[in-house]
Write a structure and sequence with these properties.
Layout (H helix, E strand, L loop, with lengths): L16 H9 L24 H14 L15 H11 L6 H18 L12 H18 L4 H19 L5 H31 L7 E6 L3 H12 L4 E7 L5 H12 L2 E6 L3 H4 L5 E5 L2 E2 L5 E4 L2 H10 L4 E4 L22 H7 L4 H11 L11 E4 L6 E4 L2 E3 L4 H12 L1
Parallel strand pairs: 1-2, 1-4, 2-3, 4-7, 7-9
Antiparallel strand pairs: 5-6, 6-8, 9-10
Amino acid sequence: KKPQGSGDKKPQKEKPKAEAAARAKGVQLDKQTKKPQGSGDKKPQKEKPKAEQKETKTKEESNAPKEPPQRENLANIHPAIQQVAAQYKHYTVKGGNARCVSCLTALKQVIQDFTYPPSNERTQLSKPLITHLNQQIAFLVKSRKLSISMGNAIHYVKRKTTTLCEEGCTDENELRKELVKAIDMFIYDRILTAGTRITQHGVNKVEDRDVLLTYGRSTAVELIIKAAHDKNKQFRVIVVDSRPFFEGRAMATRLTELGVKVTYCLLSALSNVLRDVTKVFIGASAVMTTGHVYGRAGTAVVCGMAHTYQKPVLVCCETYKFTDKSWLNSLTNNEEANIQGAMKLSQMDEADNKELLQLAQLDNLSVNNLLYDLTPAEFLSMIISEVGMIPPTSVPVVIREYHLAVN
């Protein structure tokens, strides 16, 4: 029993408040989804990961206008140090011996011109001087990384300063004179005299009808070849060269002026010239306690190929370049060359230089220009130094005896 006209109609449900509000605003709803038309099934956007946010920030920072670089305060830097730093930066002074001599000469001028603070502000003569030397050395490191030989020489100067003060040196002028004398003796004994003794040992290994191969330019190797030529020995030299400095060109020019028969080739032609070679002479920037040789990039390739062809490899190196460090690869402590400075000395065409510099400025291109590599001791036959001709396994003995003599 129901009222007439009611039929079987079910009670209508109340419309959701969202639909009512949408119709009140005049927005049409989709019949199936009950959502405003055109909204689609868009999902809420997820936040970008932190790594992507950092990348976008770095890109914005790189595109932002850069502030002009601030000039360093050079009031406490000696003019001689500034001059040497500029030479290192532009590669006008290259080679382990040349860099070490120029660094020690500049430090000698720094010591001579150093003015001590008042007597009531210092307790020892060594502390203010070593602090001042550290400032000069830090400025040199900014221009170019110090070599191992330079680090050994600087360590010698600091240790000599401390030793003189511990022995009772209380006069400033006397300390300066002793340090200058010690630096001059280091240059004479460990570099100049050592080179002469290496020449005396190495020239005995050059025989008539020899074909010598060398890589790049080494002062010690050049002196050995010159001494052998002065003794009227009949031999010829193959100079192998490579980028970025092409140091072998100066080596070939110098030997040609002396009257030596020279063949010049690039590193890519090494396998073609190694068949006639009888001995390989190379220089070194440092020798590790494991017997590994740290030298100009490409030295490991030359020594490895010579070892494959069963050719003896003789390394000419002074003992002040020996170090008690042991590196397992040539990437951890290597030095990367400044591409602009390297291009100036590469003797390339201006068009090629401009093209390379334009490529180096691209954001998605990184220029990798390593200067040194590490040669395993297995590739080496002998190391010629001022103490004699020793195998690579005897390097720790030389380092130990040197430390004992110094102490």
